[in-house]
Structures are given as structure tokens and as C-alpha cells.
Prior knowledge:
This protein is an all-alpha fold and 255 residues long. It has helices spanning 2-5, 9-32, 39-67, 69-90, 102-124, 130-136, 140-153, 162-176, 184-204, 214-217, 230-254. The model has no long low-confidence stretch (mean pLDDT 79). The chain crosses the membrane at residues 12-30, 42-61, 70-90, 110-137, 158-178, 184-206, 235-254. This is Zinc transporter, ZIP family. Keywords: Membrane, Transmembrane, Transmembrane helix.
Amino acid sequence: MLAVWQANWKIIGISWIAFAAMALSIPLGVRAASQNKLNRLIAGYGLASGAMITSAAIFLVPTAINHHPVYGGLGIAAGIIAGFAIHTLNHGLSHTTSSVDSVVLELTSHALSAGLIIGTVYAAMPELGLLLGLAIVSHKGPAGYAASRRLTIQGKSAALILLPAAAIGLTALPVSLLNMPGNTIVNAIIFGFATGVFFHVAIDFLPECEVGGKIHQETDLDHDEHHKLDRYRRWAVMNTFLGGLFVFIAWYLIY
């Protein structure tokens, strides 16, 4: 309600779009559980990661560097490292004894972190457009699709994905209401850090089709059939470039 009172419509819209993207991907993931075709999953990962990487390069990096070239760059480096740390430590949730599925816990933790980044970015630069927000949450659809597919294969309810689907707004909305400090160096570090974490998430979603990778784990290929991944690799590269190209064209037409 406070976000509505403050007329923070961009963050409200982005939060709902993130929820809808993940929620609407659930039935698609459930239906895909009985199939072995990974083209949709790879396309989703590729389009999302390409869009996110390009968005970070176009919208976020220049802003961080404009605040301060050195401290902005330092913030980006710290953000990438922190993103790796969050991802690595979140993996420990897979060994938890909680009654909630580990996939749901990891996605929820990831979504809460993403919400912090979105809120920070828009608190620092409230004039940023909806296009950036859409690019930031573009990975929610593929993530929900993959998770619901995995849960269905394991015989669990895919409706559990609704929990992480709502998590972005829980942290993005309050953080976006904060008043950012006026110090240039502090702003450079904060914005650079958010940019670095965003970069890590985008890179982590690259659909790498290597033996033992996340795409290979979704197939039923034997270890000696790894050469069959070649067609998936070509599909992954094409969709990643298309995701980046889409954002660039949208930026060119809008700005």
C-alpha cells in the first residue's frame, strides 16, 4: 500500500510482471515434464540471458561509471563476486532437511536477492524505464518453467513455484522507497554492486550445453552421446544473440 501511495508504479508493475511470468510458466513446465524436448528451455534461457547482459551493458554500466569510474568499476567487481557467493551458498539449501523442496528454497532466496537489486537500482535511478525492469525479470519465466518441470518429474506439486514468484516484490518494493545517499562514491559503489550482481545472474543463465551442465542434466543422453549436444549448442548461441538484439533494437527505438 505504501508503494501505491508513493505512486511507485514501475516497481509495482515489474513485481507483478515477474510474478505473472513465473506463474504462467508453471503449466508449460508441467506439460513439458512428459517430453524430452529441451528447445523451449534452451530458448528461454538464451533469450533471457542475452537480454539481461545487453540491458546491464546499456543501462547499468554507464550509470555506475558516471558516478565514479574507479569506484563504479569496483562495485561491479564486488557485485559479480557477491553474486557468485550467493549462488554458491544457496546451493547448500539443497542439503536442507526442511519440508519445503530445495528447488523452491533456492529460487525464493534468489528472488529475494534479485528484488533487493531491482529496488536498489530504481531507488538510485528512479527515471529508469520499464524496459530495464522487463529485462531484469525476463529470466523468471524460464526459471519457473525449468523448476516446475523438475518438480513434476519428481512427483511434487509445481504450485510451490508461486512462493518464489511473489518474492521479488517483497524486497524490491520496500528498498525502492529508500532515499539513496548523495555521496558520489557511495552511489557509484552501490549502483556498481547492483550491476555486478545482475551481470552474474545473467551469465549464470547462459544455456551452456556441456557434459554435466544444467542442460545436459535435463536430457536422458548417455555419457558417450555427448556429441548430440551439438545441436543444442547452436540453438543456445542463436537465442542468446537474439535476446541481446531484441533489447538493443527496443532501446534504439525508444530512446
